[in-house]
Amino acid sequence: MRVRRTRDSRGLARRPRFRQNSGHAGRAGDAMQLKDVVEMYKGLAGEFGRPVELSQFGLSHEETEKLFSVFDEDYLISRYLHFVNSGDGAYSINDFPYTHVMIDQEIQQILQ
Questions:
Q1: Domain of 19, in residue numbers
Q2: How far apart are CA 5 and CA 82, in angstroms?
Q3: Is residue 89 left, alpha or beta, with left meaning phi > 0 and alpha meaning psi from -120 to 50?
Q4: Which residues lie closer than 8 Å to 110 by C-beta, 6 or more apart?
Q5: Domain count, the chain
Q6: What is the DSSP letter of 3?
Q7: Do strands 100-103 and 81-84 pair parallel, antiparallel, or not at all (unpaired)?
Q8: pLDDT of residue 21
Q9: What was the pLDDT predicted at 88?
Q10: Which of 23, 41, 66, 71 suits 1 as a labelling partner, its CA being 20 to 30 A distant?
Q11: Residue 24 has what pLDDT?
């Protein structure tokens, strides 16, 4: 797996794009972008600001850790993500244990 960080014509970093190089076409992690994660989150949570288990995103443990670690490293994205650790089964997001994520509604500003 690898994470692509690209720049636009002005040299500004664009949203990270998560790619999986294993041959499992059609899986959630194959080209999951922030917009995909937010849409999935809304479907799982019902509304912004509610905790959703990281395991519910349909990715492997490793894919989940890598994807959310990339988002957590990006200041423009991470300020809208709030990770929570509520016990067993934690994922390592940038070396911190978390089980759930909450996303602020304001994240939609950077998806336009």
A1: 2-110
A2: 22
A3: left
A4: 15, 34, 76, 77, 80
A5: 1
A6: E
A7: antiparallel
A8: 36
A9: 83
A10: 41
A11: 35
Question: Coil, helix or strand for 69?
Answer: helix
pLDDT along the chain (112 residues), means of 10: 49 48 39 89 98 96 96 95 92 96 96 86
Q: What are phi and psi of 110, to 5 degrees?
A: -90, -5
Distance CA 98, CA 82 (A): 10
pTM here?
Answer: 0.72
Q: Containing H/E element for 103?
A: strand 100-103
Amino acid identity at 81: L
Using a CB cutoff of 8 Å and minimum separation of 24, what contacts does 89-97 make? 89/55, 91/54, 91/61, 91/64, 91/65, 92/65, 93/65, 93/68, 93/69, 94/69
The DSSP bridge partners found for residue 98 are: 91
Contact 28, 57 (CB under 8 A): yes
d(CA 75, CA 81): 10
